[in-house]
Each structure stands twice: as structure tokens, then as C-alpha cells.
Design goal:
The strands form five sheets. The chain has a seven-stranded mixed sheet with strand order 5-4-8-2-1-11-13, with no helix packed on it. The protein is 23% helix and 27% strand. The protein is built from eight helices and 21 strands. It is of the alpha+beta class. The relative contact order is 0.14. It is globular.
Length: 471
């Protein structure tokens, strides 16, 4: 949930706990077979498994001992291995306006058990290689470092007595013909990872409650977790939270919030049940046994856990309906980001725009509304860029529109003219069915869309997409 300020206010009025209306939609029975169509995922170029020990002491300092096994799945030999090391962006050097920045000390970096030199510039930590890593070969890289969390950081932050560890460990990027890394931006994701396996062992002071990406959390201060096939791992360390729990079939939903907002926690838990009922029924099953919602900090999606409350640290309470709407958005991301991957720098619209499309379908059902898609941005006629541009090609002031709203509206218009709401839900289910745990780019999505809707005339798509032949 990257540029949500604009949409946050637009949709605050559309929520309410009225319950989903029953529907005659039967996605698993009626979805098109698309005989002869074969989905093509984008190869990540890397394969990684992480073994991480995390310890927090009584002085609120964290120690990370991480070992990462990396296999070269590309066709090229590697002469270096870079990592996203995002905590470094919140030090005094890189975020001089923070009153309380992060402090980071790297004790040792090793390659195959031999200590090596490295360079660290902003969020990029690079290890030069004396010997190339050839295709299908593997290496082990280990890190030992200490850090404190900044206050008013972005996702990687401390909020009062709560600690949020997002992108807190060295993260392996994807590889194309070279390492797929972009300059860090504080608005919009510039890191892109593929599905990996994790073993996380943590130890924090007993006064804290811990919630993580894992679906085997016990909220204890010590645990060892095995988490497979996720893009990243998020850890929330919370001081005396209020916890509301619900059950949806085999899925446990937990809402962590402030003690003085217990009613909101309970309302959000009920709302989350409605959202999961809808998305699992219409799109596809959620693959895990637990889902956590943390009502503190900015709205953001992670595998198995999300945060929702304020927007970009503006602080203060927000309307309950707006919090619920934000929660619905982050829940939908579990499918469009968590289970279908895309590059959030070069194809941000694919997870944000399709998530917004899914949310529109949910609220159409939830509020028993007509399946309509009206333009809601004044002077939108002047916003004529295609949605499938990289972040650096879209004006910052217009990113919310191009990333979230325009793809939602254009997909909606397409399905209003091609089968309506039921067909739109079938489309999302088939998309999930074909591309689960694959990476999709704009070209592949358009190929699937054209096949599903039987589009022969591309003129309608050219109103909002830059097609490959135009490059």
C-alpha cells in the first residue's frame, strides 16, 4: 500500500459492516478453461534460503546473525552479489531529518565461511567476488550486525513501545541480464525479491508480544519458525497489545491493537472475516493457517501479516471505516503480491491496481452496490500516461492515480462491457489459478487478459496501457 493517501479519503465513505450479500457466483465451476493457453512466469534468476537468528536486548538493541544460501538460477556468471540492506537508509547519514535515526554496526560479512570485504552505499550492500558464481552453483553468505530502530522511520521503525521490523535483514534481489536493483525511494517499493524459504529464531524480552509472517506464531518472546515460499518476513514486537481473534474455517485471524481501542479491534476482526470469506470464495484459497493485522503504524502488506492505521506517519486516529477499508486493501494484497509476484518498481500497477479492482468487487458485494466504475479524479482527461510505467516515469503527484485508480477503473470498464461482475470475479480466480507463486510482468498480464476476454481490437487497451509493440 504505497500511494494510498489519495485513495484513503476517496473510499472512506464506502465501508460499513453490513455483511456480504449472497451471490450466485460459482467461480470454481464456471471459470474458462483457456485450452492451449500456458502461463509464463518471469524467472527470478536467484534461489535463496535464509537462516536468521534475531535477538533484542533490554536496551532495545537488536543483533542479527544471518546465513543465506544463494543459488545462481540465471544464465550468466556472477562477478558480485548485491543485497538490499534497507535499514541503512534510516541512519543519520541517509535520513538526516530524523530526530532519532537508526544506528547500525556491521561486525562481519563472510562468503563460504571466509570473511570478505564489502561496500555499503545507501541500501545496497555489495560483495565483490574473487571467483565467479556460475549458473546452477551456490554460495553461502553470512552477516553479523547490530542495530537500533529509528523513530518515524518508514516501515522499519519504532512507534512508541512497539517495534516494526520490515526489510530488516539482507535481502537477495532478482536477476535478469544483470542484478535488478533500483535507487531507493521513500515512496514506492524499490526492492524486489522472489519466493524464498526462511528459518527465523528470535529471542526478545519477555514483556513483549511477537507477531510475524509465520502462520505458527504463538505470540511468545522466544520461538523458532520455519516459513516457506514467501517474498519477505515481517516481525512486529508489541508491548501489551489488545488481541481480538476470529476463525474462518481453518484460518485464525488475529487483530493486534491498542488497549484503549478494543472496540475498533473487534470491529476490524469481524470485518476481516467478511473480507476473507469473499476473497477465498471468489479468488481462491488462502494458503496459510493464520493471518495477523496490526492496528498501529502505516498501512502496508507483508506475507501473512499487515499493518493499518496512519498514512506515512501523519499520526493520530483515523475513522474506523477508513481503517477497515485499508485492512481490506492489505488483505487483498495477500493474493496480488503475496501469491502472484510482480516487480513493484517497474510494474507497480499490477499489485496495487489489481488489488484495488478486487476491493471494488468486494465492496460491490459487501454493500450490495451496482457494478459501475466512474471516474473520480477531476480533470482525469489530462492524465493520459499508460499505467504500466516504472515509478521514475510517473510524476510523483499523479502516482496514486496511475498505480491504484486508473487500472481499477479501466479493468472495471472492460468487464462492464464483457460479462459484468461475475465474469470479473471469474477472471481474478483464473488469474490466481494460473499464476500462483509465479512472477508476472505487464506483457504477460496483457497476454492473459487478451486471451481471457478474447480481445481482438487493442484500441481499448491502448487507452491505458503501453503495449510491447509500442516500445
Amino acid at each position: 500500500m504505497r500511494y494510498f493517501i489519495f485513495l484513503f479519503f476517496i473510499f472512506a465513505v464506502v465501508t460499513g459492516l453490513t455483511g456480504c450479500v449472497s451471490s450466485d457466483v460459482k467461480p470454481y465451476e464456471e471459470v474458462k478453461t483457456l485450452e492451449g493457453f500456458k502461463p509464463v512466469g518471469i524467472p527470478p534468476g536467484t534461489e535463496s534460503s535464509y537462516d536468521i537468528n534475531l535477538k533484542m536486548d533490554d536496551k532495545e538493541q537488536f543483533t542479527v546473525d544471518a546465513s543465506i544460501e544463494i543459488k545462481n538460477k540465471s544464465k550468466n556468471a556472477w562477478k558480485e552479489i548485491p543485497f538490499y540492506f534497507i535499514p541503512n537508509m534510516f541512519t543519520a547519514q541517509n535520513s538526516p531529518l530524523l530526530e532519532k535515526p537508526a544506528e547500525i554496526e556491521i561486525d562481519k560479512v563472510s562468503l563460504n565461511n571466509n570473511e570478505v570485504t564489502y561496500s555499503l552505499k545507501k541500501d545496497k550492500l555489495t560483495i565483490p567476488l574473487d571467483q565467479e558464481v556460475n549458473p546452477n552453483d551456490s554460495v553461502n553468505v553470512s552477516f553479523l550486525y547490530h542495530f537500533t530502530l529509528p523513530e518515524e522511520g518508514l516501515r522499519f521503525t519504532r512507534e512508541g513501545e512497539n517495534f516494526y521490523l520490515a526489510q530488516w535483514y539482507p535481502m537477495v534481489p532478482t536477476y535478469r541480464e544483470g542484478w535488478n536493483m533500483e535507487e531507493y525511494r521513500f515512496k514506492g517499493e524499490t526492492y524486489h525479491t522472489t519466493y524464498s524459504d526462511f528459518r527465523i529464531k528470535y529471542n526478545v524480552p519477555a514483556k513483549y508480544t511477537v507477531a510475524t509472517t509465520s502462520d505458527k506464531d504463538e505470540t511468545s518472546s522466544k520461538n523458532e519458525l520455519k516459513i516457506d515460499q514467501v517474498k519477505e518476513v515481517f516481525v512486529a514486537i508489541l508491548k501489551n497489545p489488545y488481541i481480538a481473534e476470529r476463525q474462518v474455517g481453518d484460518l485464525k485471524i488475529r487483530v493486534f491493537g491498542m488497549q484503549d481501542k478494543s472496540q475498533l479491534n473487534e470491529e476490524v476482526a469481524d470485518f476481516a472475516v467478511e473480507a476473507f470469506d469473499y476473497f477465498q470464495d471468489r479468488i481462491g484459497p488462502y494458503p496459510y493457517k493464520e493471518f495477523d493485522i496490526v492496528l498501529d503504524g502505516m498501512g502496508m502488506e507483508y506475507p501473512g501479516i499487515v499493518t493499518a492505521w496512519s498514512i506515512y506517519n501523519t499520526g493520530g486516529p483515523v475513522r474506523p471505516d477508513s481503517v477497515k477499508r485499508m485492512v481490506a486493501h492489505e488483505i487483498a494484497h495477500q493474493w496480488f503480491y503475496g501469491m502472484i509476484n510482480n516487480d513493484p518498481y517497474h510494474d507497480a500497477w499490477l499489485d496495487e491496481g489489481i488489488t484495488e479492482f478486487a476491493i471494488k468487487l468486494f465492496y460491490t458485494d459487501f454493500k450490495d452496490q451496482d457494478f459501475t466504475f466512474e471516474q473520480t479524479v477531476k480533470d482525469h482527461e489530462q492524465l493520459t500516461l499508460p499505467v504500466n510505467l516504472s515509478l521514475d516515469q510517473i510524476p510523483v503527484k499523479d502516482r496514486s492515480y496511475y498505480t491504484y485508480q486508473k487500472p481499477r477503473e479501466m479493468l472495471g470498464k472492460l468487464f462492464v462491457e464483457n460479462g459484468g461482475k461475475k465474469e470479473a470475479e471469474h477472471f481474478l480466480h483464473k488469474y490466481y489459478q494460473l499464476y500462483k507463486y509465479k512472477e508476472v510482468n505487464s506483457e504477460e498480464f496483457v497476454r492473459f487478459l487478451k486471451e481471457y476476454v478474447s480481445i481482438k481490437d487493442e484500441s481499448g487497451l491502448r487507452e491505458w496501457l503501453q503495449l510491447e509493440k509500442e516500445d
